[in-house]
Design brief:
129 residues; alpha+beta; 3 helices
Length: 129
């Protein structure tokens, strides 16, 4: 056995989650699947909650647009969207036409501000990237 291998075999690795001694491969970081899952869930919980909240807002926005636009194209008053709980600062992408019109989309449902009060609701077409 080489000196390096002997030193490694004498080292007691500890689980990154519970601190118990790890048996097995040299590159193991956790003593069990349960500890590995717990460690990663705890590590990602803040960002996971944040992303879940944002995705819930986006899905709600999409649902509101789809409900108010059953035929794929319609006009609504901005106040109507606000009344339903639509949050204008959350959208998945923005599409700008050659003429400079800005469409805001929540997945496949979008809107174009016509003036301060009216919006044109649209369903995303295949040519929109």
């Amino acid at each position: 056995m080489h000196k390096l291998e002997t030193e490694h075999s004498n080292m007691k690795k500890k689980c990154k989650e519970c601190g118990d001694q790890i048996q097995g491969r040299m590159d193991k970081k956790f003593c069990s699947d349960s500890c590995r899952s717990s460690f990663n869930n705890r590590l990602n919980s803040d960002s996971t909650n944040f992303m879940r909240n944002i995705n819930n807002i986006l899905r709600k926005n999409r649902r509101i647009l789809a409900t108010l636009n059953p035929k794929g194209k319609s006009k609504v008053n901005r106040e109507q969207l606000e009344k339903e709980g639509f949050r204008f600062s959350y959208f998945t992408n923005k599409y700008v036409t050659r003429s400079g019109n800005e469409y805001y989309f929540c997945y496949d449902q979008g809107y174009l501000e016509l003036d301060a009060d009216m919006l044109a609701l649209v369903e995303r077409q295949k040519y929109v990237d």
